[in-house]
Amino acid sequence: QQLVVEIEGDGTFNTAMLSIAEAGDDFPSDIEAENPFYVSVLHADSWDEKVNPSDRWNIKIYKSDSNWDTKLQLETKRTGNGYNRNGLGSPNIHEGEIYQKITNTPVHFFRGRSEIEDIPVMLKLSGFSLSMGAETFDTNIIFTVYEGW
Description:
Layout: E1 3-8, E2 30-32, E3 37-43, H1 46-51, E4 56-67, E5 73-78, E6 83-84, E7 92-94, E8 100-101, E9 107-113, E10 116-126, E11 138-147
Antiparallel strand pairs: 1-3, 2-10, 3-10, 4-9, 4-11, 5-8, 5-10, 6-10, 7-9
């Protein structure tokens, strides 16, 4: 099976939500990204699309840290179903609708059938504190598509 995952958008967090109003206060317990980003699962070429139009697939997710504090937790969830690329009916997509922690080990995120475009995905960040100091943290989120359910 020749499927690819395409990502559009990014998981940007509103840093204005991290303001401290009074001495002794800390950051909120968690913040959600400002907007979702979009995941599409598509055939790599038109021949595979014609031969295998109803392929079943599943998405695994993990992160790869560049500079990350172990106290930080990144979570994700699917907030919609996206659209069938062929335009026929509702997308056949399952799971991933509650927040789950993204770790450095690949875990199942959601599954579907056929080509589905623009599946909205949100991120949530927690575990940050003033006690961490001023620093930039960086991680990459990796989506991998696998054949079957």
